[in-house]
Amino acid sequence: MCTAITLQSQQVETFFGRTMDFSYDIQPELYIVPKNYIWKNTLNMTSIRNYYSFIGIGQKLDGIFGFFDGVNEEGFAAASLYFAGYAQYNRQLPYLTSQQIASVDFLHYILGRCSSIKDLRIALNNISIIGLPDPVTQTIAPLHWIAADKTGKCVVIEQTKKGLKLFDNPIGVMTNSPDFQWHMTNLRNYMEVSPEQTEEVFWENIRLKPFGQAGGTTLLPGGYTSPERFVRTAYLKTHVPTPKNAIETIVSCFHIMESVSIPRGAVISSRNTYDYTKYTAFINTNTCEYFFKTYDNMQIVKASLFDNHKPLDQPFSLGKLAHPMFFNELIEL
Predict the structure, then answer these.
(1) What Cα–Cα distance (Å) separates residue 149 from each residue in 116, 120, 197, 206?
(2) Where are the domains of the chain?
(3) Residue 2 appears among annotated catalytic residues
(4) Domain 3-178+260-320 carries which CATH code?
């Protein structure tokens, strides 16, 4: 599970963010990865050099960095989401001329080497994504990816039995299965949803009046399945007033995601574990700033790629996302 969106302000700053909904225990940290960092391809241990520095949320287990989302110094941002039942990776072959990248490394690869959606399109022509078990789930996690740059362009990358495809994402929303094109077609089932108020109607001589406000949203789905979350998020992000500035955009982003954030206990996985929203994070792609909050701490925390002035040659952790919550108190003066 997970939901991702983009949102742009009147000042043409593009924000990119997501909820991390997961049924596995994770301890994510915020990392800064330096420019020109050389890392080992998990698939074959060949060396890969990053062209750009980036800041991202992820976790390191068994010597493997698994990044969930991030943004690089050029304002290119991306995130990985589950794509169960649809993701189908290539097999590792010794004679392939394309760059073979493990699915767990793909997000790291594009954040380190793409400055824009244009760069991403070019890079995908020379990439073969290979399924590899990740250290968190111990399975080959079925993934697809959403990416955006600071111009506001947004795309979805999906590897299925039809091959590796990149889709333009004009609505700037992504959830999980089915595939992205299905979700866009499904929006046609909700054309009558509206922020306007419903009027009274008559069935013969029976007068029917709406129950107060919000009658136009009656058709919006209310569950936590991927199609329902896609529809709710798409409706909200296309109907909120365009934010005037960065602060208003952050406020709008977090409010939109409140409608799809999953409380612990609302969804239980087939493994009898809670599947809930571990964290919600948004990125200002123009400034490379992160804004995030966790399930146990609703206070928004800010971090920037450019606030760290240490000369780095290795990834550096700014710390775990999890922090105890505190309360501001109003004291009589």
Answers:
(1) 5, 10, 36, 54
(2) 3-178+260-320
(3) yes
(4) 3.60.60.10
